[in-house]
């Protein structure tokens, strides 16, 4: 009688387990993905202030704009890595985020932590070296707020949305501070409520995505989503959109009355601006605005409307 051999199935390694050691090349690729270079498109917001101030072709402006863009890219990448380190377990339960480098185990935690510290310090050092002390203050506020968001405030209703929107607003403010361009009160309100629209839309899209995939995963992937309802988030989107359009209109009519800036170009720019805003709300309602930069890359109709707005603004400020 032949004695049977006990063959036990070897369980597959879970993503991110100690036994699943990624190669150096895989870890490097994971780091590149982890810093999310696609999201650097958000940092183009540093151009808004010099564009609307008519200073974009000033040769003295561009060095400051480039410094602001690079510094915010480094700082934002540092906060992405820091947030992903804290959210590893939650991300593994998310239908899309489980493929992120840290959650999937491709990127070791210690590498991500070292890179986050290096990027954050490098961004602040860049501001010091180039003498952009105003930008250093804005960037420092951004980093502190993002750390508070990652550790605590992302779990608090409304405060998490306000912190997300502050990141967009601080980018716009940084462009004005770095280039010494005066910021209109209406411009700051437009930037503020535009940021709030994107942040509220991000949360609503996340809620729609998770509820459509598996309602049971809503609270397990992002605890604060348990406290939100679709109705409340849609209300925030509606209020933000209305105030955004109202404040932009006030800014446009103010610009039309300024010496040397008169004419119809500013009021005319309201049309493509409103259309672009409503198109973005359409993407939010579909649940596709969880990543604002993805909307900017994928929605061709939105791109056309944005180019039309830039065309009217450019013609009015630089050619009329």
Summarize the structure in short.
By secondary structure, the protein is mainly alpha-helical. It has 15 helices and no strands. Helix 3 packs antiparallel against helix 8 (159-179) and helix 6 (109-129) packs antiparallel against helix 7.
Into which percent range does the helicity of residues fall? 55-70%
Derived structural class: mainly alpha
As a percent range, the share of strand residues is under 5%
Gross morphology is: globular
Task: Describe the model.
- The chain is mainly alpha-helical.
- It has 15 helices and no strands.
- It has helices spanning 24-34, 48-52, 61-86, 88-92, 101-104, 109-129, 133-151, 159-179, 185-213, 218-221, 230-256, 265-268, 270-285, 292-298, 300-319.
- Helix 7 runs antiparallel to helix 8 (159-179).
- The longest helix has 29 residues, at 185-213.
- Mean pLDDT is 86; it is low at 1-19.
What topology emerges from the helices and strands here?
Layout: H1 24-34, H2 48-52, H3 61-86, H4 88-92, H5 101-104, H6 109-129, H7 133-151, H8 159-179, H9 185-213, H10 218-221, H11 230-256, H12 265-268, H13 270-285, H14 292-298, H15 300-319
Helix pairs in contact: 3-6, 3-7, 3-8, 6-7, 7-8, 8-9, 9-11, 11-13, 13-15
């Amino acid at each position: 009688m032949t004695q049977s051999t006990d063959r036990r199935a070897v369980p597959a390694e879970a993503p991110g387990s100690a036994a699943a050691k990624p190669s150096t090349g895989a870890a490097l690729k994971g780091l590149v993905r982890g810093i999310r270079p696609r999201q650097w498109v958000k940092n183009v917001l540093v151009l808004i202030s010099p564009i609307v101030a008519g200073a974009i072709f000033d040769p003295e402006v561009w060095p400051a704009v480039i410094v602001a863009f690079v510094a915010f890219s480094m700082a934002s990448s540092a906060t992405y890595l820091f947030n992903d380190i804290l959210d590893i377990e939650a991300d593994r339960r998310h239908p899309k985020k489980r493929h992120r480098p840290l959650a999937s185990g491709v990127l070791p935690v210690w590498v991500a932590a070292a890179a986050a510290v290096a990027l954050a310090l490098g961004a602040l050092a860049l501001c010091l070296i180039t003498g952009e002390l105003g930008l250093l203050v804005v960037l420092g506020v951004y980093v502190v707020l993002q750390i508070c968001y990652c550790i605590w405030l992302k779990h608090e209703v409304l405060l998490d949305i306000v912190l997300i929107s502050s990141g967009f607003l601080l980018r716009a403010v940084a462009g004005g501070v770095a280039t010494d361009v005066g910021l209109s009160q209406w411009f700051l309100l437009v930037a503020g409520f535009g940021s709030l629209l994107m942040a509220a839309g991000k949360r609503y899209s996340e809620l729609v995505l998770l509820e459509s995939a598996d309602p049971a995963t809503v609270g397990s992937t992002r605890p604060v989503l348990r406290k939100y309802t679709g109705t409340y988030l849609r209300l925030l989107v509606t209020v933000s959109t209305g105030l955004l359009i109202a404040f932009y209109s006030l800014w446009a009519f103010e610009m039309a009355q300024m010496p040397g800036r008169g004419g119809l170009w500013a009021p005319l720019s309201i049309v493509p601006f409103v259309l672009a805003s409503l198109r973005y709300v359409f993407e939010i309602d579909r649940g596709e605005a969880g990543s604002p930069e993805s909307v900017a890359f994928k929605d061709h109709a939105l791109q056309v409307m944005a180019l039309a707005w830039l065309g009217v603004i450019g013609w009015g400020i630089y050619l009329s």
